[in-house]
# Entry
Amino acid sequence: MYKAADYRNNASILIVEDDLVSANLLAGILQKSGYDISVASRIGEAEDILAKQDFSLILLDIHLPDGNGMDLCRKVAGNNGFYSTPVLFVSASEDLSSKIEGFEAGGVDYITKPFDGAEVLARVRTHLRLNRAYESLAALQTERIQSLSNTQMSMMPSPEQMPEARFQACLRQIMQAGGDFYDVIPSGNKITDYIVADASGHDLGVSIWTAAFKTLLMEYASVIHHPGEICRMINYSMQKVLPESMFFTAIYARLNRLSGTVSLVNAGHPSAIHYSASKQIASYCLQEGDVLGVFDNVGFGVTDISVQPGDRLFLFTDGLTEHNSHHDSSMAELLKTCQSTSNLPLEDAVPAIVDRIFTDNQMEDDIVLLGIEV
Amino acid sequence: MKSSVHFPYPDPVSYNGIDQEDTEIYHHKELLKRLPGNEDLIPMLIERFLQEIPAYLVDLQEALDKEDAASIFRLAHTIKGSAANLSCKKLEKVSKEIEIAAREERLSSAREMMPELLHVFSQSRNVLLDHM
# Structure
């Protein structure tokens, strides 16, 4: 793909013109104004040059001995918009149909013979400036996306911030502004709420909704409300504001370290894994439930399990188990890996699980793995 | 600068009473106007012109002989462009007529205009040499 040269470097212009008087005239004028100039007198020559070098702008004659300049124009400019090098084509003043064809082929402007030096410079400058503005805009938007991702990352607490919550998280983002996230909220004395959620879309707008979700969590997560109730309240608000096609799945685990119980609430999310230290076996706490943000009346899987010190709980998003077509085998694989890493300290076990799952497989989706130690 | 190009045709007879500064043949002032601050390019451009055009004229004659309308069009178009850029209006006009004739497949008309094209080029060359 032909990309416009970085405007920060000296602006470079390619002239494709077989009439050497015209080519030299253009080259002379432009060089005097400080541009780096290359000249090709054939389409073939131009393509060879373009294969090795990017240009800030191309001046292209239409009638060339070895072909129609329009074809080259299409290749360079095409429909790539501002990521392509601006092409100004050279036209005879009376040739209206060529001008139209030139624009349709992706040319951004034209200059006519005989060239007026001042006019050529003005048009070239205009288009270099315009392209520079496009590039600035693109850079700015990329920066925005990055900071959205960073914001999302900073929304999620790190284990060091909450040592008493005894967790480790592994988040891998493949998508630009992912919809997978987790949260850890101390909701009461020796009671910690762990949530992993997954938004259904992956485009930029998702970050806004995950922020909204987190806000609701912060609002409701306390011992006053049971996790099931909390999920219902979140659903109520989300359902009113989320766009048609969007929803969240979530798994909510409230660990009461005093009573040794975990309340698990499942809203259409992959089931949690419980690793029993005494039995040295990991198993799924199979649950089903409605997704969040779609239905008025929702039902969630609610289960209470007993846990012992040393036990582990794993909450994750489906990127971890949906990576190959054999869903059952990847679920079994995850279970095995949770078991086989039980000898590692939690902070090592969690990343190790992710690495072991994805040694042979390609990560196609964002993944979150939240490991909790009782 | 001495033109070292070999013409396949005898040098056309120049008319008497031609005004050497006939601006239709070469309009120096207009060229200067189009290249403000770039007058120093003119000798180089003239040199290029005097090197390139004779070669195109040879090719053009060949194309006329072969009745290759596409090449006649392209060559006449190129000469027209060069002439326009060097403010050689008369040469531009004649080559444009040949270009149109070729596009409309009126090849005999095109052939008929060739002697005039050569003549006008010869005139242009004489004037341009004075401006180098």
